[in-house]
């Protein structure tokens, strides 16, 4: 019987952590790009765009991420399309992230005082100029802390991708546990690694929120 040392277990988990980090970065970046596009449709003047984005957000916020992963992985398979687990995981997490980021950012834009719109309009600014020079700079400052905070949810959401066969940290933990029969050691390390990934992000969000609030009050 093969004997696994503590270092063997930790090394295997750290190797899998690379994929957790990569998937988190790709999903968050992709979600941010899609979310920014949807945001402009959501707050735009075209009613069809606003309604379409609202239903999109409600659909992906109102259904479990696990179900979305299943549909991304198995749904296209019904049409004879073979979807790799990493691609299905990336697409599902990107769309899920976009839905939440769109709403986070919409709330930040709408939190800008109505007087800012009126003042910029009185200066003869058009809608694009208002957004670029007045509204978005203020909304961006408000949006930074919750956006960084949401990145923690993306990291933790990657754990669900193990259900479709993507080998990230939690999936590696299961595989290593089956090989070593040391669940306490393995999942103890898994928990510590997730904490090491998520705690700095959570702390950064809190620090940014305090600093930006102070800057806003001083301004």
TrEMBL record:
GO terms for molecular function: transmembrane transporter activity. Signal peptide: none annotated. PROSITE patterns: ABC_TM1. It holds the Pfam family BPD_transp_1. Belongs to the binding-protein-dependent transport system permease family. HisMQ subfamily. It is a multi-pass membrane protein. It is found in: Cell inner membrane; Cell membrane. One of its GO terms (cellular component) is ATP-binding cassette (ABC) transporter complex. The chain crosses the membrane at residues 20-43, 55-79, 85-105, 139-164, 184-202. It comes from Rhizobium hainanense. The keyword NADP does not apply. This is Polar amino acid transport system permease protein. Keywords: Cell membrane, Membrane, Transmembrane, Transmembrane helix, Transport. GO terms for biological process: amino acid transport. Residues 17-205 form the ABC transmembrane type-1 domain.
